[in-house]
Write a structure and sequence with these properties.
21 strands, 8-stranded mixed β-barrel, alpha/beta, GGDEF domain-containing protein, 5-stranded antiparallel sheet, EAL_dom, elongated
Amino acid sequence: MTSEPGGPRCDGGPGDAAADLAPAERDPLRRFAGIWCRAVHPLAATTMTPDEFEGYLLPLARRLSAALRTSPFDTEAAYEVGAALVDAQCTEPDALPAILGVIDAHLVACSPAPGRPFPDRADEPFPDRADEPSPGPADEPPADSPGGPSADSPGGPTSEPFDETGHGPSHEPLTDEEARARCVRLQHALAAGFVRELRKRERDEQEAIARAALAARTEAEKALHASEAKFQAVFEGAVIGVGIAGLDGEVLVVNHAMARMFGGMDFFRPGRNVTEFVHPDDVPGVHELYRELVSGERDHFRIEKPHYRDDGSVLWTNLTVILLRDSSGAPQYQLALAEDITEHRLLRERLRYEATHDELTGLPNRTLFLERLDQVLAADVDAGRFGVCYLDLDGFKAVNDSLGHVVGDRMLKAVAERLQGCVNAPDELIARVGGDEFLALVTGPSAQADGAGLARRMLAALAEPVRVEGRELRVRASIGVVDGRAGEIGRAEVLRSADITMYRAKAAGGNRYELADADSNARVIARHSLTNGLPSALEKGEFFIEYQPLVRLADGTVRGAEALVRWLHPVHGVLGPDQFIPLAEDTGLIVPLGRWVLEQAARQAYEWRGSAQAGGEPLRVNVNLSPCQLGHPTLVSDTVAVLENSGLCPSALCLEVTENDLIGADESALRPLRQLADLGVDIALDDFGTGYSNLSYLRRLPVSTLKLDRSFTRGMQRAPADPVDVKIVEGIVSLAHTLDLAVTVEGVETAVQAEHLRVLGCDTAQGWYYARPGPPERLHTLALADAS
C-alpha cells in the first residue's frame, strides 16, 4: 500500500523504517498524532504550541484506535473525540476536512492488529472535558445503530481497563475491508460529534448574548424610567427656573419656579416666544450668542439678563441656555436655567455706588474718576481730546484747625454743590478725590478750551462766600489744567502734570488756574529726582567742597576762604548749592550734610595752619549755617566736637548766618550762637541789607562780621560809581565799625569795584575778581604769592 498525502503510512510495510527507530519512535499512534498535528495545527485557532497540540492529540488517537478494533464496535469515542477537537479550538472551516483526511489516510494503518501490543498503554488519560456535560439522550445514536453504544458497554469501549497486551477485553481480527468500513463510520461519528459540539457552543453563546441583551434592555428601561422620574422631580422641585423651548423659540414648558419669577403662568401663555424677551440693557452680542446656539455652533452660553414682567417691573436673572441634541447629535431643544438675582443686583449696584461715590458730598470719588479717565485714555487716537482740572482749596486747613471739622465738612458740601453746578454737559465729570481736592474731566475736540472754561466757571462759582452756621467763609482755590489727545498719554502722567500745574497756581498766589507747561513740569520732575537722590549721595561720597578766597582789601593778602559745597551728580554733573541746598533743607538732610561740610572745612583749615609761613597770620575758614542747623539742638555740641577732633582753634572758624534767619529771633534762638561766640568762634551776618531788620537790632546779635550783599556794590563795578550805592555802603561801613564789626563784601568782580570798597573802609572781600571757588591747594598757592 502506498503512502497517502497526509504523511507516511504506519503499517510497517515496504519502505517502513520503523524497525530502525528508537522504541518511543516505533509507536505507530505517536506517529499518527504527529501527522495529525502537522495537518491540523496550522488551521486551528488554538493557543497551544505544536508540541503541546501533538500531546493533546495522542490520547484522542488512542481512543480512535481502540474504538476501531474493539468488539462490539462502538462509535461513542469518536463523538467525544470530535467534541474534544472543538474544545481545542479546531473550529476553523478548513480544520474538519483536515482532521477527517488524516484519520481516513492513516488511522487503520497506525492501529495495531489484535495480538500486537502497543508500545505504550492505550489507557492514557483522555483530554480533560470535565467542564463539558456528557451528550444527552437526544444526542446519542440509537442503541441498535451501527454507531451507538452496545447494551453491555454503556460507558463505551474505554470504560474497562486494557489487559497486559494493550487491548480491551474483547477484540477480534478484522479484514482490511472491515477496518476501512469501521474507519469511515468513526469519521462520520467524529464529524457528528464535532458539529454537535460546535452547534452547542454556538447555541450557548447565542443564549448568553440573548440573556445579556435582555438584561441590558431591562436595565436601560429601568434607567430610562428612573431618569425620567428624576428629571420630572428636578424639573418640578427645582428652586431655579427651568424652561424648554423649541429651536424656533416657542416656549414649550416651564416649571413653577420659572413662572413665579415672571409673575405667574399667564406670562408664558401659548405661543410665547423667547425672542420677545428683549430689554434695552441686554449685554451686547446676546442675539449673536442665541443664533449660534440654535444653529448648533455652540452648546451653551451664560449671561446676566434683564426681563420685563407684565406689570412693567424688571426681573434680573442669571441665565444659562443649553442646547439639547437628539441621538444623532442634531439640535432639538433649548433648555433655559434662570436664577432670580434682582435683589443681588440691586445690592451690588448699591455697593458699587457707595464704592464709587464720596460719602460726604455725593460726588463721584477717585475710583470712579480714574475708571472714566482710563476709558478715555484707552480710546483710539482719533477718539478726540480730553482735559483734566485739578482743584485744591487754598487755606482749607486753617478752617478745620480754627473752626473745627464739622464746619469744614459743611463747607466742603457747599463747595461740592457749586462745583457740580458747573458741569453742564454729559461728557463732563467732577469728583472729590481727597480732603479738599477735586478733579474734573472734560472730553471732546475742544477739550483744552473747555477745560480752561470749566476752570473759570469753578472759580466764579466759588467767588461768593459760603455761609456756614451764620459765618461767611471765603473760598479760594488753585486749579491746574491739563489737556491731551486720547491714546497718547498715560494716567500717571496726566495726574502728575495736573498736580504740578495746580501747585504752580498756588505758588503764583492762588485763587487762579494755570495751564500745564512741559518745561515747568520737567523742572519740577528734575527737582523731585534730585530730592530722591540726596540721601544716597551723601553715603556714596558724591559731595565735595570748593573754597573761595577772602582777601584783605588793605593789603590784598588772603586771610581765609569760604567753604562752598558742590554735588557731583552722576547724571547732571556738578551742581551748585543753590540747586540742592533748598532740597536738603526741605528733607532734613541739611543737618548731616552741614555737619559733614563743617568737618571737612575744619580739617582743611587745620592743614592750612600747619603749612602757613612762620609768624604769618593763620588762615580761617567760613562755613554757612542753614536755618535747620541753627535751630538744631546739637549745633553747639557738634561744633565743639568738630573743633576738638580736627585740632582747629575756634578763632579760625567763622559761621555765617543769613540776616533773614535772625530777623525776629528771640533769645532762645540766639543762645546757641552766643555760646559759640563765647568759645571764640566768629559769627558773620550774611546777605546783610536784604532783610528788614532794624539796624539797632545788630547790638543784640552775637556777630563779629557783616557780609554786605552784592546788590549794594554792583553800581561800583564801573567808573564813575553810582553815588547812591557809595553813600549806602559808606553808611553801613561806618555803622559796623562803630559797633566794632568787620565788613566783608561779596561779589567783587572788577578792580574799580575793589578800589572803591577799599577806599570806603571795607575790611575783606571775595569774588571772581580775586578767584573763583576752587580746590584747597589753589588757595595755598595764592597765600604764598601774597607772602612773596
